[in-house]
Amino acid sequence: MDMHNSKHTVIILAIVVIVLAAIFRDRFIQPNNQQVTINGTGEISARPDIAVLNFSVIEQRASTPAEALKKSSEKMNQVQEKLTDLGIKEKDIHSSNFSMYPEYDYNDGLRKERGYTVNQQLTVKIRNLDMIGDTIKAITLEGVNQIGNVNFEIDDLESLLQQARIKAIAAAKYKAIELAEAADINLCKVLGFWENQNSGPVMYNRSMTMSEKGFGGSDDFAAPIVQPGEQEITAEMSVTFKVCRQW
Prior knowledge:
The protein is of the alpha+beta class. It folds into two domains: 91 residues, Translation Initiation Factor IF3; 104 residues, 2-Layer Sandwich (Alpha-Beta Plaits). Helix content is 34%, strand content 38%.
């Protein structure tokens, strides 16, 4: 009696497995054209080789617009000369913002002019990452009093993305083979592939503000240590396979 029940149980389990495999196969295969599409992800880790530095010379409370512009321009010109001395090429230096406006104090509902402010901003690419800290220190001593958004980039990003795409297609093919075996189908060729949207490299940035003569207002201060770390370059690919035979 027990042997009969055991055989009955085995038969039921076999039927359940066959039914589940058929259901999975039907969902796995696109019924109208007998093809399947599988997604794969590829990742590449890389160290950035460019730092993009945004900084400003802000001159406040000058008595006239001309005075504010004169003082700000003198400092910014010194900053640009210092950048050239540090080996940064002109193509990697560009003005990203310029503004001039009056400032006011308000007391008992009355507005009183307190001076004029000029804000000149540069964006600089630093290709020698060992020079980031020294560059920040040098431009601070020349009059830069605001630094923000130190971003890190990879110069030849496209070649790394291509490597990630290749890894993503390989991952999709491997996944397809495993799923095809589980679904009892046979894949005979790749019909096509395309790239999906992805997050791309993870960007690192930091912001800082300092006094006109550097950290703490003294010329004698250590250059900051800014680490670029690594970025993850990610690609996601979809690959469509033709089902050539079902078992």
